[in-house]
Fold:
Amino acid sequence: MSFFDSFFQQLINGLVLGSFYALVALGYTMVFGVIKLLNFAHGDFYMAGAFVGFGALSLVSGALGAGWMGIFVAMLLAMMAIGCLGVVIERIAYHPMLNAPRLSILITALAVSLVLQNAALALTGGQYTAFSTDIGFGGFEVGNLFISHNQIILVATAAVLMIALELGVSRTMYGRAMRAVSIDKDMCRMMGINVAGVIAVTFFIGSSLAAAAGTMAGAYYGSIWYFMGFLIGLKAFTAAVIGGIGSIPGAMLGGLILGLLESFGTNIEFIGSEWKDVFTFAILILVLVFKPTGLLGKSEVERM
Amino acid sequence: MATDEARRPTPFERLYAYLDAPNRRHTVHVIIILLLIVTPFIANQYTTVILTNALLYVVLCLGLNIVVGYAGLLDLGYAAFFAVGAYTIGILTQQFGVNFWLAIPFAIVAAAVAGVVIGAPTLRLRSDYLAIVTLGFGEIVRFTARNLEITGGASGLFAIPEPSLFGWRIDSASDFFYVFAVLAVLAYIASQRLYHSRLGRAWLYVRHDEDAAEAMGIDRVRTKLSAYIIGAIFGAMGGIFFSVNLGAISPESFSFEQSVMILLAVVLGGMGKIPGVILGAFIIVLGPELLRDLDSLRLLVFAVLLLLIMLFRPSGIWPDKRS
Structure:
């Protein structure tokens, strides 16, 4: 493979990885926007989404097959289920803590994450579950370059979801309300906006995007396990910070940048793939030191 | 809380008030010291080892309590400092043949440096950032330990020599029980002194209202950083003696789960309250021993417990009055 081919191959891998990061990062950034909470459990919504998607796929595969058609339906079901899970968790765990000290709500979020992880551990026995599908390995060959159909479908689905979200947030009434709530909750209440409802919708959308990413990642990589949300949660957070936390286009951009950085960075000789995760955290710390507001974030530095 | 005056104190509150009374405190101290001295004589080997582990947790929890309870900073990678202490000792004594007692200062300096490296850039930011950066840092330390040759890779370091003090070889279970008892008592005294010090009051102030504290002339970043460094040193002290007690360390001893357990003990006992934190440490170590059958569900039980505490009793079982 020439340098040129290898460059494009890494570009494609980076885009696929980046789509997953971006979808998960969106949930972080949206929840942060409305209630200023880092939802540690967000990565576990991705994990739960993968498991629900897997279960849903085995239900619908009889009628629709286990190809992309079936996976899409399973993905939509997983999005609904995890969206509702997100709303329920917000109601039970986060809502009573909104006026408590920040430390309390952070620890609560951590507790929710541990509960989800260990519930999945108890249910699956900690084994990898094979996410078997019929999506095949077909693809195009362009010169020495190989692009699989799956990669195209994944990136396209992620793009459609993100465009729909962007349109929803910028054009609809709920989107406007969401942006208003992220600026000033008290003022929103005075203007007659149902703040609790907006928070619930935000949680629903954020969690369902994570579930979409989880189902697609399960189908793409072929196996799922209870701990899969931990690392991607951290990485998606990094992506959200790179893009500027609270900014929706920022989360998309940050996800893609992180995916590409990882894909290229770990293919340089001196950073072996065993250092991949250290590499990501190093980026996170560097961004926080030199540009804590991220690429597209607001310039005010919030203190707490 | 205003409602507290109106109702009768619960039996627990009466017990805490009884134990907390300044004139009784010395009696309580003496009883605890006597218990620590006689335990290895009356307990069997197994119980002694478990209690030694509980005392190690007391040191770690008191250290994390300075960061979380006193200064109000959420640290999710506390096991990293524990690891830095343990690995520094492991590398220096086992690979370079340095005397154990001479290696201790190096381990402490290494932990303090790690505290500054991770704290200095992030303490200026929101506390949420600190939480997630510490989480990332904890993972970096573990990955690094697993990938480097000097740390023994995934299998870790073993045959770490046992220390001796003036010709007395510290090697039996009861020897290590006494070592950790001394360490826990020192950690207790240091925590107590810090709580009542000028710095302790500065932490309280920063925790409650950072901007007001800064307006009163308290250097926000320096105050937080000092909490972070002191917490790191406590963690390293735990790690130093942990490594020679077991004689072997591996990256998995310092996982995220370890950090979470230490945090859970602090939150359970009562953030900022020294006796509460000690109680929490004992519950976290002894609880699973009593519930052996639950092994696979152990973490789930603890996770649900943590969630319930945060929702219904966020100040822990022995709350700190000052907060």
Summary: Residues 3-35 of chain A form the longest helix (33 residues).
